[in-house]
Design a protein that fits this description.
The chain is an alpha/beta fold and 332 residues long. It contains 11 helices and 14 strands. The protein has helices at residues 7-14, 17-28, 43-52, 60-78, 97-104, 118-128, 143-155, 178-191, 208-215, 221-237, 298-307; strands at residues 33-34, 84-88, 109-115, 134-136, 139-140, 165-168, 197-203, 246-253, 258-265, 269-273, 278-282, 287-294, 311-318, 323-329. Strands 2, 3, 4, 5, 6, 7, 13 and 14 form an 8-stranded mixed beta sheet that branches. A 4-stranded mixed beta sheet has the order 1-12-9-8. Strands 10-11 form a two-stranded antiparallel ribbon. Helix 4 (60-78) packs parallel to helix 5 (97-104). Bound molecules: N,N,N-trimethyl-histidine.
Length: 332
C-alpha cells in the first residue's frame, strides 16, 4: 500500500468491526467508561499476558499448572477418559497439555480450542500440535458460537453416550460478575450433551495485599498489559491516546471479592479516534474500567455451577496460592 493511500480506507479493511463497536459503545457511555477485557489479547496483549503468568507476584497460572499436572490422571479418569476435549478461551493452551497427554494415553483425542484471539490460537496450535495421539482443530469464535460449532461438528464422529470434556480454565469465569457467571454456565450447559463434563478453574479469595501485588506488579508488566488496550485502539482504529497520560490502577473490592483494573486519566483531555469519528472527553482522574477479576470461595464455585444446572462431581484445590479446579456433569 502506498504512503499516500487514504488511512480511513486502509483501516476500514483492517479494523475488526466488533472491536470498533465495543470501543465506541464503552467510551461513549454515560457515567463509568468501560472496555471489555476480551480485547486485551491481540498479539502484543497475548505476549504481555504470557509474561504476567511467569511473574513471581502472579501465582494464578503456576498454581493451576501444578494442580492440573498433579491431578490430570485423576481428572481424566473421573471424566470417563474423554475423546473429545473442547476448551473455552484456550489462550496458548500450555496448561492444557497435562490433561490432553493424560487422556491421550488411553485413546486418541480430538482437541477443539475456542478463542476469539487468532494470535492465541496460533501459539496454541504450535505448543500442543505435536502432542501424541491428539488431533487439534482450532475454532476462532466467541464462546457460545464456538461451542455450537464444536458440538455440531463432533456429533457425527462421536459414539453415542461418549461424554465430551469442556474446559473453562484460568479463572476466566472471574471476568463475569456473579449473576452473569451463573447464566453463562447455564448457557453453555444447554449446548452440551447429557453426560458431558465441565472442568472449571477458579482463583480463590486471598488477602488484599497479595491480590493487589498480583495485579499491580512492581515491574509494570500488568500496567503495560492494561495500557496496551489504548495502544491497540491507536493501532487498529487510528486513535490518538497518549499512553503517558493514563495510569494503570488495580483496586480490590473486598465486599464483592473482586479485583478491578482501571486506566486513570492523569489530566483533563480529549482523545480523537479517527476510524470511529469520535472525540472522547476525559475529566482529571476519570477512569476506563477494563477488567473485573472475581475471586471465589471453593464452595462458592460448586454452588455457582449447581445453580446453573450442572451436577457437582469433584473438586481439586491448590492451597498454597489458592486455586480450585471443579468438575461438573450435565445430567444424563
Ligand atoms: C485471564 C482473566 C484470569 O483475571 O487474572 C491478569 C487476566 N488481568 N492480570 C486474571 C489478568 C491482569 C486474568 N484472567
Amino acid at each position: 500500500m502506498s504512503a499516500s493511500a487514504a488511512p480511513v480506507l486502509y483501516n476500514a479493511a483492517r479494523a475488526n468491526p466488533e472491536f470498533a463497536h465495543a470501543v465506541a459503545g464503552g467510551l461513549t457511555r454515560r457515567g463509568q467508561k468501560t472496555l471489555p477485557p476480551s480485547w486485551f489479547y491481540d498479539e502484543v496483549g497475548s505476549a504481555l499476558f504470557e509474561a504476567i503468568t511467569v511473574l513471581p507476584e502472579y501465582g494464578l497460572t503456576r498454581a493451576e499448572g501444578a494442580l492440573l499436572s498433579n491431578a490430570a490422571d485423576d481428572i481424566v479418569r473421573t471424566s470417563s477418559h474423554p475423546g473429545l476435549v473442547i476448551e473455552l478461551g484456550s489462550g496458548t493452551g500450555t496448561k492444557t497439555r497435562h490433561l490432553l497427554a493424560a487422556s491421550a494415553r488411553y485413546r486418541s483425542v480430538d482437541y477443539l480450542p475456542i478463542d476469539i484471539s487468532a494470535a492465541a490460537l496460533d501459539s496454541c496450535v504450535k505448543i500442543l500440535g505435536t502432542t501424541d495421539n491428539v488431533s487439534i482443530q482450532p475454532i476462532e469464535a466467541t464462546y457460545i458460537d464456538g461451542i455450537e460449532t464444536a458440538v455440531a461438528g463432533s456429533k457425527a464422529n462421536r459414539t453415542a453416550g461418549e461424554p465430551a470434556l469442556l474446559l473453562f480454565l484460568g479463572s476466566t469465569i472471574g471476568n463475569f460478575d456473579r449473576t452473569q457467571a451463573t447464566s453463562f454456565l447455564a448457557r453453555i450447559r444447554k449446548r452440551m450433551q447429557p453426560g458431558d463434563y465441565l472442568l472449571l478453574g477458579a482463583d480463590l479469595v486471598k488477602p488484599r495485599a497479595k491480590l493487589l501485588n498480583a495485579y499491580d506488579d512492581p515491574t509494570g508488566v500488568t500496567a503495560a498489559f492494561n495500557l496496551n488496550l489504548l495502544a491497540r485502539i491507536n493501532r487498529e482504529l487510528d486513535g490518538h491516546f497518549e499512553l503517558s497520560q493514563f495510569a494503570h490502577e488495580a483496586r480490590y473490592d473486598e465486599r464483592r471479592s473482586r479485583i478491578e483494573m482501571h486506566l486513570r486519566s492523569r489530566r483533563a483531555q480529549k482523545v480523537r479516534i479517527d476510524a470511529l469519528g469520535l472525540t472522547i472527553p476525559f475529566a482529571t482522574s476519570e477512569t476506563i474500567w477494563t477488567e473485573s477479576s472475581h475471586k471465589f470461595r471453593a464452595d462458592d464455585v460448586s454452588r455457582t455451577g449447581c445453580r446453573a444446572g450442572w451436577l457437582f462431581v469433584r473438586q481439586w484445590v491448590e492451597s498454597e496460592w489458592g486455586f480450585a479446579e471443579t468438575l461438573f456433569q450435565k445430567a444424563k
